[in-house]
Amino acid sequence: MSNCIIAQSGGPTAVINSSVVGLLKGNKKMKAFDNVYGGLNGIEGILERNIINLSEISDEEISYFRFTPSSGLGSCRYKLKDPETNEEEYDRLMKIFHEYDIKAFFYVGGNDSMDTINKLSKYAKKKNIDIKFIGIPKTIDNDLMYTDHTPGFGSAAKFIGTTAIETYLDSSVYTNNGIFILETMGRDTGWLAASACLARIDNKPVADFIYLPEVVFDEEKFLKDVRKRFEENNKVYIVVSEGIRNKDGKFISEIESSTQDKFGHAQLGGVCNYLKNIIIENGITNRVKALELGILQRCSMHCASDMDLKEAYDVGKCAYQYAVDGETGKMVAINRTSNFLYDVSYTLVDTEKIANQVKYFPKEWINEEGNFVMQEAYDYFKPLIKNMPELAFEGNLPKYKVFNL
Amino acid sequence: MSNCIIAQSGGPTAVINSSVVGLLKGNKKMKAFDNVYGGLNGIEGILERNIINLSEISDEEISYFRFTPSSGLGSCRYKLKDPETNEEEYDRLMKIFHEYDIKAFFYVGGNDSMDTINKLSKYAKKKNIDIKFIGIPKTIDNDLMYTDHTPGFGSAAKFIGTTAIETYLDSSVYTNNGIFILETMGRDTGWLAASACLARIDNKPVADFIYLPEVVFDEEKFLKDVRKRFEENNKVYIVVSEGIRNKDGKFISEIESSTQDKFGHAQLGGVCNYLKNIIIENGITNRVKALELGILQRCSMHCASDMDLKEAYDVGKCAYQYAVDGETGKMVAINRTSNFLYDVSYTLVDTEKIANQVKYFPKEWINEEGNFVMQEAYDYFKPLIKNMPELAFEGNLPKYKVFNL
């Protein structure tokens, strides 16, 4: 018999630990490996032999861990060098795997992690080392190719949709309402900002406008649209992705605003504050509020999607099965087999194909004016945010368990 | 028979509509009034006859309204002028009440609303007008006197505690962790910031330091404390109230920072960014993140306290009962009758006593160093955040119902 190891990499999500638990439970049932090890802080930690035995942890602790947000095994932003020119790191890693009698390595992550899986699997093949390397997808950005969506995205979309409704209500209570701007993450793609279309009251979207990085940001049109809507409704609700750019490809968040606040400071703080400033400067109204959701959208387990948690669990379990079946150098992907009665199947994609590619929000799901999304987007998002998770509580707050602290 | 009217005022909370429903249900049972009217946008809207009949709304809609955050009847920031010198507004209001055959007026709000109740009840008495005026407390700030706590606060505290754990986990995943600063509301009092002491992992508080407006902010000591803790743990988690001030009484948020960001702007955006800047300027570390919770802490029904919702409902129901009993010019207050097996009773306080007073966070619940809170604070907060609400869903997001849109 032998062992396997799993580790996490890149930015955290609400459901990343669920994938680890899916794999653990898979082994509990099939027992293909004696032990499932956890590498703390990804490849970086494994190189330092920061390794724990997850198979020795009690079922109770694992049940809390499953519903704990953020990378409970720790994470890293470590990129392996090119194996052609730098074998040393690869050798060290293989030596450590050999010490622990490891026959399969699983990496939960995004683009960079799939690149790592790709490099390691090739290296192992070249050196005739019998270790399987399987990637498990995760990213709130939903920008991985060859998968219908990515675990972690559904929970982020649910948090964005929920807070969009709630902040819309909060910013609509007076007779003199102003303009509200909600900023989401999404440096390169608009999936997160677009998911705000889920937010509806009486079946009407709360957002007036949604701005995505996939559309060149035209300041003049923006001001015209906002002014008109404000004159019509005495309020405007705007959602914007942090990654919008102008026609020169410059991030709007990097343009200096000429507005100064009441203490004489130039204002900054992301796109939402830039938009706030130009709305005020152009005399539309002074009543403008801006809110950056920041890291809340990737760690809010208290508002996670149970569907997302389930799928994250399943991709972990499938990764395990594929490794046992002898696959390597691949990532588990999700196929949507039905949308109306939502269902998915799992498959494998070559990590070579995935690494360094980006899945953009489809142009055909953006309206002609470039300031909102189409019904297709709503239909795509809706099943991904289904159901609330059942959390354990302690001291009247969620009880979480991590292994990296 | 006759009618009564209820309206909402001031900043919204997650549970303010629950008080309206408590009162409605009270009348459904006792039937002391033919109709319960709702004044839209508080006194300001009532003066414009923006009045709806809540008794005609279906039970189903009311059940959604009960679990809807923010002021579902709309709100205002309207202060009645002094009745001694300006009777006109009072007369207009009494005339409208007469038109609608109103015998009791209920105002859900904070300090200013209690001042309104006080003025109106006195005016009615003076003019021999038989209308009862009862105040129903609400404020996330928890700063009303003569009540153990205020409906709305528990839900805000629960959101702060929950997001403190979750952002702590998110900001602790790398081997090189930095400093995280969470900014809460609380311009004058520290109740909200202090409630972050609820956030614990393995029964240990996640926050290293909590800074309240009740303690003079000493920048030198702050930097010394943070530097020491960072050297010890390689990470520091800080919670700060927006209202902290220096020894001259100046808000820290109004002090100009000399730091410029990578684009050459002076930075601003609340206390958390000021603290971030001085940590960087003083060379402690460059890895500092700051997050302002903003209005999320007062509208996050998806993370509300069910205990808070229940108490908000009960103060509405009690207000009704007190008006029927002939009381006027008073506010319903909450007494904590037991903490271990948490229980409360409801009573009345003269609004004259409450208006224009502030309940500060107790000095004796702050540690000697002035940078954290005592166990007494934790014990006080804990029962107020109990249980999650059971929300209705539509399109996989919470289904909310308001009457002001």
Shape of chain A: elongated
| Percentage of residues in helical conformation of chain A | 25-40%
Oligomeric composition of the shown chains: homodimer
The interface involving the most residues is between: A-B, 72 and 72 residues
Secondary-structure element order of chain A, N to C: EHEHEHHEHEHEHEEEHEHEHHEEHHEE
Strand content of chain A: 15-25%
- What is the CATH topology descriptor of the largest domain in chain A? Rossmann fold
In the CATH scheme, the class of the largest domain in chain A would be: Alpha Beta
Overall tally of structural domains of chain A: 2
Radius of gyration of chain A: 23 Å
Query: How many DSSP-defined strands of chain A?
Result: 15
Structural class of chain A: alpha/beta
Task: Compile the SSE list and pairings.
Two copies of one chain form a homodimer.
Chain A: E1 3-8, H1 16-30, E2 35-39, H2 42-46, E3 51-53, H3 59-66, H4 88-99, E4 102-109, H5 111-126, E5 132-137, H6 153-170, E6 179-184, H7 191-194, E7 200-201, E8 204-205, E9 209-211, H8 219-233, E10 236-241, H9 270-281, E11 288-292, H10 296-299, H11 306-324, E12 330-338, E13 343-350, H12 351-354, H13 375-381, E14 393-394, E15 397-398
Subcellular location (chains A, B): Cytoplasm
Cofactor (chains A, B): Mg(2+)
GO molecular function (chains A, B): 6-phosphofructokinase activity; diphosphate-fructose-6-phosphate 1-phosphotransferase activity; metal ion binding
